[in-house]
Amino acid sequence: MSSSRRSRQAGSSSRISDDQITDLISKLRQSIPEIRQNRRSNTVSASKVLQETCNYIRNLNKEADDLSDRLSQLLETIDPNSPQAAIVRSLINE
């Protein structure tokens, strides 16, 4: 039995159709810079798209953590009552 057939038979709203998966993979292809820059992005396999998406998210999280650390270090070097300190604190807390 094909997976799309199983999806239709299940009738559950929590199931996702093959067409929806294809659409989501296509959206990821367009969203991930490493894939989007590839002239043959439409030929990249779904598993490669998911792998690159995970790597991209990991890198974004690492960049966010690094920026937060840098802002914390900056905050230690400026007057805590200054307007600049308030801006840095608001950035850290977002």
Automatic annotation (TrEMBL):
InterPro entries: bHLH_dom, HLH_DNA-bd_sf, PRE. It comes from the Eukaryota. Gene3D superfamilies: Helix-loop-helix DNA-binding domain. Residues 50-77 form a coiled coil. Keywords: Coiled coil, Growth regulation, Nucleus, Transcription, Transcription regulation. It is found in: Nucleus. Residues 5-60 form the BHLH domain. The keyword Transcription regulation applies. GO terms for biological process: regulation of DNA-templated transcription; regulation of growth. One of its GO terms (molecular function) is protein dimerization activity. Residues 1-20 are annotated as: Disordered. GO terms for cellular component: nucleus. PANTHER family: TRANSCRIPTION FACTOR PRE, TRANSCRIPTION FACTOR PRE2. This is BHLH domain-containing protein.
